[in-house]
Design goal:
- Strands 1-2-5 form a three-stranded antiparallel β-sheet, with no helix packed on it. It has a three-stranded mixed β-sheet with strand order 3-4-6.
- The chain is mainly beta.
- Helix content is 9%, strand content 44%.
- The protein has helices at residues 55-58, 92-97; strands spanning 7-12, 19-28, 31-40, 45-53, 63-72, 83-88.
- It contains two helices and six strands.
């Protein structure tokens, strides 16, 4: 799926800790929004957009522009020093099921990599 980097602005209300992220995402016409997920991953504040294919949307337009406004809600405002946005061409459930094994886990050759 050919996706484009989102255009975005980060807004802060004066004298508060209320942060809002406004985005414009250009993507193929056949995708609709599944969910927007935000979380702290230990290094950066992640904002993930999950889109899933819908054949009904294909009839509407070849390319679509979607505008989003997201209130960022970190536990600590310093977590917003680095923000990373990712756009997925699958639903959140599909993305979680297709993630690779954590380092050091999974099958490595025959017999789970154990020597006899």
């Amino acid at each position: 799926m050919k996706l484009f980097y989102p255009y975005f602005n980060l807004f802060v209300k004066k004298d508060t800790e209320n942060y809002r992220l406004d985005l414009l995402i250009k993507l193929p016409g056949k995708y609709k929004l599944d969910v927007i997920d935000q979380k702290w991953d230990g290094e950066v504040w992640l904002v993930n957009f999950y889109f899933e294919a819908d054949s009904e949307y294909e009839k509407v337009a070849e390319v679509q522009l979607q505008e989003y406004s997201i209130d960022l809600k970190p536990e600590n405002v310093k977590q917003l020093e680095k923000i990373k946005m990712q756009v997925y061409s699958m639903s959140k459930a599909e993305a979680e099921n297709t993630r690779p094994d954590s380092p050091g886990e999974g099958d490595t050759g025959s017999g789970n990599g154990e020597e006899d």
